[in-house]
């Protein structure tokens, strides 16, 4: 089960998701465009705030917009390419995990690539617009940092969803944690006191867009290397948590058909 | 309420803690500005409690849209329509139970956090009592809007994209991040008339800036919007019922 095989499965799923989007193109366009508009409204909230306050702890609206733009690309890539990570808790709770465990392929990888959130492409599109508008001369660097941010976000998503293995029905909790992770991951954390910053850095949320933004503004190879290493470490920890959870899992005895 | 209480300690309580943590971040965001007065109206304690109240009013509501939409998509709503009870009323009761337990979980954390950060000088006992009343009416307005949008899934397959816009409009024109008086005159006069203002801004402001004329204004506006949105939900529901009979659920 090498990397080549995994890439072939990934390619097959990517084709399937693209065909699904084309088949239901109106639904795809509605979801992506509404997410684009939804994020634009969110960005507008910060615009209104900064119009009123000017700068906050040295941060301007452009700084916050860049954080948001990187977060949108990171979350867009994560949900667009690995959308199944957001469904882990639901599938475990409803017993649908059996389907993935019984197949000759890494269950976590399979779950992750088996879904693509159509709205994610709206995230990605607005994120690109934002970084092109704010750092046109550093687009490549911003994209690289966003991709690493996406790895960090996938890790956070997996870790949150594995809570389902130890809690009775963590629906509201998982929903709130995902919402908080998305909100905090795209929030200007460096304006906060050190205690709050420590918490957000320790949970890994700062590595989704705050640290990537700092690297885009003050580039150094060392910082980029550290970001990459941290994101990879987060993914390893998340994978370990999932595997530990699977060992506790008891089959839901659910018989399902997949067309 | 009983259903939600079963999972309160493993689920709802921690979700409430996260809601409180998020509202604290918003409060600290304002603290980072270093100001003692905001928008020429709100003192720092008033502002902090306004933000906590707004988060409480928004935090546990908008899930109704996805719930109704999901029930439409998986067909379970069709079987519920055949039960010997009014489905809209049953959905409202379930929604209210979730909001009450979710809000209770959040309050357990918000009250100590707010007290530690700014004390309780921003509000009175009278304000708290009437805040609870207008918060309840706010849930009714949200139910009317949420159910109308959720039932759109009968025609649009998936109502979630409309929910995203609704939730962000609630953030923006409800006043989750800032009081609506932040807007320039023309936009402010429109925003203050929208149902979102009566769901978040006015109830939160009533808590920190209580007056009897404001209470009367909020109650009249809420009753009118609650009547309008619930009537809209019933109209949409009556059309949705016909849709079920055509496709067989």
Secondary structure tally: strands of chain A: 0
- Give the % helix of chain A: over 70%
Number of strands of chain B: 2
Mean pLDDT of chain B: 85
Strand content of chain B: under 5%
Query: Which stretches of chain A of 5+ consecutive residues score pLDDT under 50?
Result: none
Structural class of chain A: mainly alpha
- What is the element string of chain B, with H for helices and E for strands? HHEEHHHHHHHHHH
Radius of gyration of chain A: 19 Å
Low-confidence stretches of chain B: none
Strand content of chain A: under 5%
Summarize the structure.
Chain A is mainly α and 259 residues long. In chain A, 72% of the residues lie in helices and 0% in strands. Chain B is mainly alpha-helical and 249 residues long.
Would you write up a description of this structure?
The complex is a heterodimer of chains A (259) and B (249). Chain A is built from twelve helices and no strands. Chain A has helices spanning 3-23, 25-53, 61-81, 88-93, 97-101, 107-113, 120-134, 139-161, 171-185, 194-202, 210-217, 221-248. In chain A, helix 2 packs antiparallel against helix 3 (61-81), helix 3 (61-81) packs antiparallel against helix 7 and helix 3 crosses helix 8. The model of chain A has no long low-confidence stretch (mean pLDDT 87). In chain B, a hairpin with a 3-residue loop joins strand 1 and strand 2. In chain B, helix 4 runs parallel beside helix 7 and helix 11 packs antiparallel against helix 12. The longest helix of chain B has 36 residues, at 212-247. The radius of gyration of chain B is 19 Å and the shape is globular. The A-B interface holds A 27, 30-31, 34-35, 37-38, 41-42, 44-45, 48-49, 52-53, 56-57, 119, 167-173, 175-177, 179-180, 183-184, 187, 191-193, 196 and B 7, 10-12, 14-15, 18-19, 21-22, 25, 28-29, 32-33, 39, 63, 102, 156-158, 160-162, 164-165, 167-169, 171-172, 177-178, 182-183.
